[in-house]
Design brief:
The structure holds two protein chains of two kinds.
Chain A (H helix, E strand, L loop, with lengths): L8 H16 L1 H83 L3 E5 L1 E4 L7 E4 L12 E3 L4 E8 L4 E5 L6 E6 L7 E6 L5 E7 L9 E4 L11 E9 L6 E8 L9 E5 H7 L1
Antiparallel strand pairs in A: 1-13, 2-3, 3-6, 4-5, 4-13, 5-6, 7-8, 7-10, 8-9, 9-12, 10-11, 11-12
Helix pairs in contact in A: 1-2
Chain B lengths: L1 H19 L12 H13 L1 H18 L6 H13 L4 H6 L1 H25 L7 H34 L7
The chains are: A alpha+beta, B mainly alpha.
């Protein structure tokens, strides 16, 4: 059986001639290359562009997912940090109060400070009193002073086993002996609450010069209220030349509507240690 | 049973009022929730139950208050007894009676309270300050009274098996 030729002899010769020409003659090869690229290049560009676009989209999708995850993590971190910041602010306030309280304790001398919490207020409009969560079981006794680091809040008037009633200094029936925080003046007066709010210092001798802004502190005259606790400051003076005494309207150092971090000063221990 | 339920309600309300009353509401407006309830119950249920509820309510207010112990009990027992002379059902039907009863209950309660404090050696409010507390309280209590009357009557009916007769 005769074997047929797959490629005709002239085709083979042409191919060999072309190869020789391309290898040995630079100009023809360059022309052929240019022509070939002119045809191929658009196709290549199209394919490459398409693949790039596909890659961009998939890359964008992946990037968006990454961004979304990072965004979520960042938001969680922000929430956590915000909560932490609130806690730190509370700690800062507590730290400041405790430092002030330490200063108060140092100024007021030895005596146990019993931390208490307000658990109730008097429902009557005529009585300014609060209920605290410590009582006789915690050495709270009648007459002991209740304070914050800012100053005097009131006095214990009734105790039960686990609670006590505190009459605020803003009550009209409250009376605390006070004096001006002035080394040149030892004048004292009775500080009472006013129905319209605020305090009134009564029975101050006429010859006493009272300036607005003067601080009034507690005067230790035979009571369980320690000396030196800030009661308030003078905002108005009332005097008449025909009267024996003058009066001073005081702004309380502690706002009765905002009572936080209260302490009962167990001054009986201070008395015992003297 | 209904009286026990009213007593429990009064105990809870007095506790809640002392714990959160100062934190909610208007500072210059005082609401006498417990006295209004005692007055409503006394007018509906009569002398004995009015006084009993007044006693329980008064004891609760004395416990949470810094005023002399026994003052609120005395005043509310008196309030429960006096309001029992008024027919609550008649009051509910007439707006004029409601306003009158609301004002009289408020004035009677506050004046008696103030006089009792003075008698026990406590200092009273000056008249102008007293009136500044009294007027808003009277207005608020007058609005609260019908609610207390309706609620009291429903509680009584619920626990006594009262049924509306249908003709």
């Amino acid at each position: 059986m005769t074997q047929r030729r797959v490629f005709p002899w002239w085709m083979t010769g042409s191919a060999i001639a072309l190869m020789v020409a391309l290898l040995l003659l630079p100009e023809p090869s360059r022309i052929i290359q240019s022509l070939a690229m002119a045809v191929i290049e658009p196709v290549q560009s199209a394919i490459t562009g398409f693949i790039d676009d596909v890659s961009d989209v998939s890359g964008t999708i992946q990037h968006v997912q990454t961004l979304a995850r990072e965004n979520r993590e960042s938001r969680d971190e922000i929430s956590r940090l915000q909560a932490e910041m609130v806690g730190l602010q509370e700690l800062e306030l507590e730290n400041r109060d405790l430092r002030n309280l330490l200063g108060l304790k140092q100024r007021s001398g030895p005596g146990e400070l019993i931390p208490v919490r307000v658990i109730g207020r008097d429902p009557s409009p005529y009585v300014q009193a609060i209920t605290i969560d410590r009582g006789s079981q915690d050495n709270v006794q009648n007459g002991l002073a209740v304070m914050t680091w800012r100053g005097l809040v009131g006095r214990v008037v009734r105790t039960e086993a686990t609670t006590a009633k505190v009459l605020l200094i803003s009550d009209v029936n409250s009376s605390i002996m006070g004096r001006f925080q002035d080394p040149e003046s030892r004048a004292t007066g009775m500080v009472r609450g006013r129905p319209e709010g605020g305090l009134m210092m009564q029975h101050v001798p006429q010859e006493e010069v009272i300036d607005s802004g003067k601080v009034v502190i507690s005067s230790d005259l035979g009571t369980l209220v320690p000396e030196g606790l800030v009661i308030g400051k003078v905002v108005q003076v009332r005097r008449k030349d025909v009267d024996v005494f003058q009066e001073a309207v005081l702004e309380p150092a502690v706002d009765p509507g905002k009572l936080e971090r209260l302490f009962v000063m167990d001054s009986t221990r201070r008395e015992a240690s003297r | 049973m209904h009286l026990w339920v009213m007593m429990a309600i009064v105990v809870v309300l007095a506790t809640v009022e002392s714990a959160v009353g100062s934190r909610v509401g208007v500072p210059e407006l005082h609401l006498d929730v417990i006295p209004v309830i005692v007055a409503a119950w006394g007018s509906l249920r009569g002398f004995e139950e009015g006084m009993l509820l007044g006693a329980v309510a008064g004891i609760m207010l004395d416990v949470v208050s810094g005023a002399p112990f026994g003052l609120h009990t005395s005043v509310l027992v008196l309030l429960g007894a006096v309001t029992s002379t008024v027919d609550g059902s008649t009051v509910r039907a007439n707006i004029g009676f409601i306003i009158s009863m609301g004002v009289l209950v408020t004035v009677g309660y506050h004046v008696t309270l103030m006089l009792g404090m003075q008698a026990l050696g406590w200092e009273a409010f000056p008249p102008e300050r007293f009136l500044r507390v009294l007027f808003p309280a009277a207005a608020a209590n007058t609005l609260l009274l019908p609610i207390a009357l309706v609620a009291s009557e429903h509680i009584y009916r619920f626990f006594t098996g009262w049924r509306q007769m249908e003709v």
